[in-house]
Write a structure and sequence with these properties.
The complex is a heterodimer. Chain A is built from 12 helices and no strands. By secondary structure, chain B is mainly alpha-helical. In chain B, the strands form 2 sheets. A two-stranded antiparallel sheet of chain B has the order 1-2. Chain B has a two-stranded antiparallel sheet with strand order 3-4. Chain B has one domain. In chain B, strand 1 and strand 2 form a beta hairpin. In chain B, helix 2 packs antiparallel against helix 3, helix 3 runs parallel beside helix 9 and helix 4 runs parallel beside helix 7. Chain B has 9 helices and 4 strands. The chains are: A mainly alpha, B mainly alpha. At the A-B interface, helix 3, helix 4, helix 5 and helix 6 of A face helix 1, helix 2, strand 3 and helix 9 of B.
Chain lengths: 286, 225
């Protein structure tokens, strides 16, 4: 398959699987809370719906920044698919993509002029201080495997076994990062219901469609990275089973925990990051 | 050590005398992202913050006035260009200069706002950034003194030493202070409450991209293998 075809196919898979996994998460949460819950394809339907709904733009918005920021979010997560499943490139590059995701999250909120968006923006800045150290556990992977290139990490695991077993604390840290990006998680302070929909509050119609499209790809990519760098190269069915298991586990946690307040959320994540990094370094040394 | 194990295959270098710019997919992506956001900032208006007034039924609207807008936009563009430069430079001293410039213009972007709380936080950030210049340039100087070069492509081939590790730690502390990341974060977060979304973006963008690039540089300086 040529490169462009490969990219389009992988982006389509990432979007569809990511959307359905979001729906699955809501369904499992609902069943745990003894509610019927929405259909599993609800998130996917919502995304399509927003693409055909009328778009409205707040008079207070910073134009064209307010519109472009949603396109930026799409671009960086499509780039993540290229770095990940398509080329199996550098984890460091994926780290950079995640850093830019935090910036986009921050400015999608502030660009509308809405106080809800602004609060979400400030929370995004706080949460970046916690999530970026969590993402830095990728360096532990580098120290263990001697490479940042995903394909080489997969090869390393085929020879030495899954990294999940040799650096479990690093895997736990990455799981906390995944948890923090899931809707309704205890760490989802940027989209807490006390601020309506957080940074998405003032993005309507097509723009919301872009945001939801990007979030689905982001969810798929985070799960893909976790499975690839901590378990190894799986076949498509293996990836799907792994993603469903992680999503179900995340749903279980989200269903039984409240959203923490911003300070508690950040301090919990920072503490877990510190334990993970220090513990993993000690594990590597001995 | 081969640089391709960090940011991917080397795509090319641009030698400008002693200063060499190099491009891997990692550096190129961050360079392109910094330039894309800078372009966006250059052409964007700022938002208006509308909030309900306490005790009345009126709204309170906070806008960025024209003179403030002009100077903040100029500083934001300088910051974006400095960030882009810091992403591709292959020279450690050049990197520290870019980081120092980023801190100076970040202070300026916020200090242009005429609000007491925001000015207070800009002042505190300024103090930290000023103090952080010592470990920033000191770290680079120690690395130069112990390795005999500040070219990152040359430093790749130089074996680890205690002094390079010490210089790296100082460099990291310097970058953390200049970019105002945790644990110096408390002063900076307050600055994000002010209007002027596109300009605040570049403060956040420059900090995070510089931190990501610093990780690459620290791994070049201290080779674990």
């Amino acid at each position: 398959m040529n490169l462009m075809g490969n990219i389009i196919l992988n982006v389509a898979i990432a979007f569809l699987v990511g959307s359905v996994l979001f729906g699955l998460q809501r369904k499992i949460m609902a069943r745990i809370q003894m509610r019927p819950g929405p259909p599993i394809i609800q998130h996917l339907l919502h995304t399509f719906k927003f693409f055909i709904k009328e778009s409205a733009f707040p008079k207070t918005a910073a134009m064209p920044f307010y519109i472009a920021i949603t396109a930026m979010l799409c671009v960086i997560w499509v780039a993540a698919v290229i770095v990940g499943p398509v080329t199996e490139g550098s984890l460091l590059l994926f780290f950079a993509i995640y850093a830019i995701h935090k910036i986009v999250e921050h400015n999608a909120g502030s660009s509308s002029g809405s106080p809800y968006g602004k609060l979400s923006c400030v929370r995004a800045v706080y949460s970046a201080a916690a999530e970026v150290p969590l993402f830095a556990v990728l360096i532990i992977i580098y120290l263990k495997t001697g490479t940042m290139i995903i394909s080489n990490i997969v090869t390393f695991q085929s020879q030495h076994g899954a990294l999940l077993l040799s650096i479990p604390l690093a895997a736990l840290m990455f799981f906390v990062l995944i948890l923090s990006k899931s809707p309704y998680s205890p760490f989802a302070i940027t989209k807490g219901k006390d601020i309506v929909s957080g940074y998405e509050t003032e993005h309507f119609g097509l723009l919301r469609g872009y945001l939801m499209f990007s979030e689905s790809i982001a969810w798929y990519m985070l799960l893909w990275i976790f499975l690839t760098v901590f378990i190894g190269g799986l076949n498509p069915v293996g990836y799907l089973i792994g993603m469903v298991i992680i999503t179900a586990f995340v749903a279980l946690i989200n269903a039984v925990t409240p959203i923490l307040n911003p300070n508690h959320s950040v301090m919990t994540q920072v503490t877990l990051a510190f334990i993970g990094i220090a513990g993993s370094i000690i594990t590597l040394l001995y | 050590m081969d640089i391709s194990i960090l940011g991917g295959q080397m795509l090319g270098i641009i030698p400008l005398g002693d200063i060499v710019l190099y491009f891997t997919p990692f550096n190129l992506f961050m360079f392109a992202a910094a330039l894309a956001f800078t372009t966006l900032i250059a052409i964007s208006k700022t938002e208006s913050q509308v909030e309900a007034e306490f005790g009345t039924l009126k709204n309170r609207e906070v806008k960025v006035d024209k003179s403030e807008f002009k100077i903040r936009r100029f500083l934001a563009i300088v910051c974006g260009l400095a960030t882009a430069g810091a992403m591709v430079t292959g020279d450690l001293f050049d990197f520290t200069l870019f980081v120092a410039l980023i801190a100076i213009v970040n202070i300026g972007i916020v200090a242009a706002v005429k609000e007491v709380d925001v000015l207070d936080s800009a002042f505190q950030y300024g103090l930290i950034a000023m103090i952080a210049t010592l470990p920033l340039f000191g770290g680079a100087a120690i690395i130069l003194a112990s390795a005999g070069t500040i070219s990152l492509l040359q430093l790749l081939q130089i074996p680890n030493s205690t002094m390079i590790l010490y210089g790296s730690l100082l460099l990291f502390i310097g970058v953390a202070g200049e970019t105002g990341v945790a644990p110096f974060f408390a002063t900076k977060a307050e600055m994000f409450r002010t209007p002027g979304s596109p300009f605040l973006l570049i403060i956040h963008l420059s900090s995070l991209l510089v931190i990501v690039r610093t990780i690459e540089i620290l791994l070049i300086l201290n080779k674990p293998f």
